[in-house]
C-alpha cells in the first residue's frame, strides 16, 4: 500500500470527548492570517484596552502595535526578510514580544532561547538556525561576548530590563546594578535596543503584511524523543489554532481580564497561552520577568490576575508563602497547572487554599508538548475530572497505543499518549530522522506525534497521565534530559562513565544527581571542582547536577544495564 492509499483510506478517529463540544466547535477553523494580523485585529477592536503590563506600567493595544511597527521597520533596515531567523535570549520583558510580532509581520522567524542557557548551548542554537541577529538581555554580555564567533550573527542587540520600566523604577534598577555586570563595548557589532528602534525613524521602507497560516513563525526547543535538545519549527497555524481553541475554554472571561505570564516566552505554554492567545482574545498579559516566591503576595496584590498558569512548584510556593495568609483572592477565576503532573495531594491543598481565600477557582491540569505547541488537553470549569489532564482541545485528537504494536488500547488501559492536530510542528530543524521518529503515519492514515508519555483514556475522553516512557527529570517545570547531561560530563577528559538520575527536592520537585566513574589515574579530590565548573560552563543553570557522586563502578541489572532505580535510592556519600 502506497502512502497515497493510506491517506485516501483515513479512518474516523474515535472522539468520546466530542459530547462536551458543539458540532461547530469540533470543526474548528484556522484563519489564513499572520500572528501580526491577528494581534492587530484585536487592537482595532480594543485600542485603549491594556495589552500588557510590565512592573506596574500599562501599555494599550494601540501603543503596542506602534511599538511593533517601529521594530519591524528597524529589522527591515537591517535587511531581515522572509525566512530569516533572529534569536531572542531574554526573560519576559516587553521587547521580546515587540520583536516577535515585528518579525512575524516581515515573515521572519523568532528563535526563542532560555537566557540561562550555557554559552555552548546558545552558540549551538545560533549555528543550527543560521541566525542573523541575536537579541540579548544586557546583563549577560559576559556570557555571550565570545558566543557569536563562528556563527552567522551580524550584530548583537542588547536590551536592558529597565528599558520599559517606569522612570522611578528605572532609576532604582540602574542604581542597584551599578558595577554588578560588565557593560558591553560600544562598537559596530553591538547595538542597544534604543539605537535599533531609532533606525525606524529615518526608514522609507514599506512592509506589507502578506503572510498566512503556513508561514513559519517560531523555533522553540525540546528534548524530542532522544533527550538531546531539538529545534522545533512551528508555523503561524499552531498559534492561530491555539487562539481559536482557548477562546472556547476561556469564554467565561471578559475582555479586560488578565493572565499572569509567569511561564517564559521560550516555553510553548508561555509564548502561546500566556502571551499570544491572551492578547489576541483581548485580555491583558501581565509580564513577570523573574518569579520570586517570597514576593508572591505583592505580585497578586498589585496585579489581581484573573487567570494563573504555572507549574506545580508555583502553586507550592503560593500555599507556603506566609505573607499571603490574609490575602483576598476573590479576583482569581482560573488556575491551570502544566509542565508536570499535579499530585492529588497538592491539588486538594491548592483548592482548599483558594476557598479559604475567597476564590471560586479550582485548579485544573493541562497537558501538551512543544511539538504540538504546548496545550493539547485541558480541564477547566465544569469539564474536568480530578486527577486527569482534561480532554483534548477542539481540533486535537488523542489516542493511547501499545508502544510495541502501535495498536490502540481499550479505555482505561495504560499506553503511550499519541497526538494528532493541525498544530503539529513542521519538524525538527535539519533533523529528518528524529522528526520521522516523533511524527509517524499510523494504519488509520493519520499523522501522530508520539509523546513518550504514558497514560490512559476513560470512556468520557478524559486523559490521565501516568509517567514517562523515557527517563526525564522535571525541575521547577523545566524538562531536563539525563542523556544530555551525561553526554556533557562524559566529554570531560577525566570521566570514564556518568549516569544522571532525578532525585526528590522539597521545592523544585526533582533535581539532577550525577554518578561518575573516573578514568584510571584520576582522583575525585583533584578533579571534582573542575568537573563541576565544566558543567556550569556547558549546561544551563537548572541542568547542573545538585550532587556529584564518585564511584569506582556503577550498579548493574541482571541484563548488564545501569540500575537506575538503585541509583535513585542511593543517598550515600561519594567514594573518594
Which shape, going by the Cα principal axes? Answer: globular
Please summarize the sheet with the most strands. 9 strands, mixed
How is the largest sheet built, in terms of strand order? Answer: 2-1-11-10-12-13-14-15-16
Number of separate strands:
27
Terminal residue distance: 61 Å
Indicate the percent of residues in helices.
Answer: 25-40%
What does the average pLDDT come to?
A: 90
Radius of gyration computed on alpha carbons: 24 Å
Q: What would you note in describing this structure?
A:
- With 576 residues, the protein is of the alpha/beta class.
- 30% of the residues lie in helices and 23% in strands.
- The protein is built from 18 helices and 27 strands.
- It has a nine-stranded mixed beta sheet with strand order 2-1-11-10-12-13-14-15-16.
- β25 (495-505) and β26 (509-518) form a beta hairpin.
- α13 (312-320) packs across α14 (344-356).
- It is globular.
- The mean pLDDT is 90.
Summarize the topology.
Blueprint: H1 3-8, H2 23-26, H3 35-45, E1 50-54, E2 57-60, H4 61-77, E3 85-89, H5 94-106, E4 109-112, H6 119-129, E5 133-137, H7 141-144, E6 155-159, H8 167-176, E7 190-192, H9 193-198, E8 216-222, E9 230-235, H10 236-249, E10 258-261, H11 268-280, E11 284-287, H12 296-303, E12 307-310, H13 312-320, E13 334-337, H14 344-356, E14 363-367, E15 377-378, E16 391-392, E17 396-401, E18 415-421, E19 427-428, H15 432-438, E20 439-441, E21 447-457, E22 463-468, E23 473-475, E24 478-480, H16 482-490, E25 495-505, E26 509-518, H17 524-538, E27 547-550, H18 564-568
Parallel strand pairs: 1-11, 3-4, 3-5, 4-8, 5-6, 6-7, 10-11, 10-12, 12-13, 13-14, 26-27
Antiparallel strand pairs: 1-2, 8-9, 9-19, 14-15, 15-16, 17-18, 18-21, 20-21, 21-22, 23-24, 25-26
Helix pairs in contact: 3-4, 4-5, 10-11, 13-14
Amino acid at each position: 500500500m502506497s502512502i497515497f492509499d493510506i491517506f485516501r483510506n483515513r479512518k474516523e478517529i474515535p472522539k468520546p470527548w466530542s459530547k462536551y463540544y458543539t458540532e461547530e466547535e469540533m470543526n474548528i477553523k484556522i484563519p489564513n492570517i499572520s500572528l501580526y494580523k491577528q494581534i492587530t485585529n484585536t487592537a482595532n477592536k480594543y485600542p485603549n484596552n491594556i495589552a500588557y503590563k510590565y512592573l506596574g506600567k500599562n501599555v494599550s493595544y494601540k501603543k503596542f502595535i506602534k511599538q511593533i511597527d517601529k521594530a519591524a521597520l528597524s529589522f527591515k533596515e537591517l535587511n531581515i526578510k522572509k525566512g530569516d531567523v533572529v534569536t531572542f535570549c531574554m526573560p519576559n520583558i516587553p521587547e521580546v514580544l515587540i520583536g516577535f510580532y515585528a518579525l512575524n509581520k516581515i515573515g521572519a522567524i523568532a528563535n526563542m532561547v532560555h537566557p540561562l542557557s550555557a554559552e555552548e548551548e546558545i552558540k549551538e542554537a545560533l549555528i543550527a538556525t543560521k541566525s542573523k541577529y541575536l537579541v540579548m538581555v544586557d546583563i549577560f554580555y559576559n556570557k555571550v561576548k565570545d558566543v557569536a564567533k563562528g556563527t552567522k550573527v551580524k550584530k548583537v542587540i542588547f536590551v536592558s530590563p529597565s528599558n520599559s520600566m517606569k522612570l522611578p523604577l528605572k532609576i532604582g534598577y540602574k542604581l542597584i546594578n551599578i558595577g554588578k555586570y560588565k557593560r558591553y563595548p560600544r562598537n559596530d557589532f553591538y547595538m542597544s535596543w534604543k539605537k535599533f528602534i531609532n533606525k525606524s525613524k529615518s526608514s522609507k521602507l514599506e512592509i506589507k503584511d502578506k503572510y498566512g497560516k503556513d508561514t513559519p513563525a517560531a523555533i522553540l526547543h525540546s528534548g524530542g524523543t532522544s533527550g538531546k535538545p531539538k529545534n522545533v519549527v512551528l508555523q503561524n497555524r499552531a498559534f492561530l489554532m491555539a487562539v481559536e481553541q482557548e477562546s472556547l475554554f476561556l469564554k467565561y472571561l471578559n475582555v479586560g481580564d488578565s493572565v499572569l505570564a509567569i511561564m517564559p516566552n521560550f516555553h510553548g505554554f508561555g509564548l502561546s497561552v500566556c502571551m499570544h492567545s491572551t492578547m489576541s482574545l483581548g485580555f491583558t498579559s501581565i509580564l513577570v520577568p523573574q518569579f520570586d516566591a517570597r514576593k508572591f503576595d505583592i505580585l497578586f496584590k498589585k496585579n489581581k490576575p484573573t487567570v494563573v498558569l504555572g507549574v506545580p512548584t508555583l502553586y507550592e510556593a503560593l500555599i507556603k508563602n506566609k505573607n499571603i495568609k490574609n490575602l483576598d483572592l476573590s479576583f482569581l477565576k482560573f488556575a491551570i497547572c502544566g509542565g508536570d503532573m499535579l499530585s492529588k495531594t497538592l491539588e486538594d491543598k491548592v483548592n482548599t487554599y483558594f476557598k479559604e481565600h475567597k476564590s471560586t477557582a479550582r485548579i485544573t491540569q493541562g497537558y501538551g508538548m512543544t511539538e504540538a505547541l504546548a496545550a493539547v488537553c485541558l480541564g477547566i470549569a465544569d469539564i474536568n475530572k480530578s486527577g486527569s489532564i482534561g480532554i483534548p482541545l477542539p481540533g486535537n485528537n488523542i489516542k493511547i497505543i501499545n508502544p510495541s504494536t502501535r495498536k490502540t488500547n481499550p479505555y482505561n488501559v495504560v499506553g503511550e499518549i499519541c497526538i494528532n492536530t493541525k498544530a503539529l510542528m513542521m519538524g525538527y530543524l535539519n533533523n529528518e530522522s528524529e522528526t520521522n521518529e516523533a511524527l509517524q503515519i499510523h494504519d488509520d492514515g493519520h499523522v501522530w506525534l508520539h509523546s513518550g508519555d504514558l497514560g490512559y483514556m476513560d470512556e468520557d475522553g478524559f486523559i490521565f497521565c501516568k509517567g514517562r516512557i523515557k527517563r526525564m527529570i522535571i525541575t521547577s517545570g523545566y524538562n531536563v534530559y539525563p542523556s544530555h547531561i551525561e553526554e556533557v560530563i562524559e566529554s570531560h577528559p577525566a570521566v570514564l562513565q556518568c549516569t544522571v538520575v532525578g532525585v526528590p527536592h522539597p521545592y523544585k520537585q526533582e533535581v539532577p544527581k550525577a554518578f561518575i566513574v573516573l578514568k584510571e589515574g584520576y582522583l575525585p579530590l583533584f578533579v571534582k571542582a573542575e568537573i563541576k565548573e565544566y558543567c556550569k560552563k556547558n549546561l544551563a543553570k537548572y541542568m547542573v547536577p545538585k550532587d556529584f557522586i564518585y564511584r569506582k563502578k556503577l550498579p548493574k541489572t541482571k541484563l548488564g544495564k545501569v540500575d537506575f532505580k538503585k541509583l535513585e535510592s542511593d543517598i550515600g556519600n561519594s567514594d573518594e
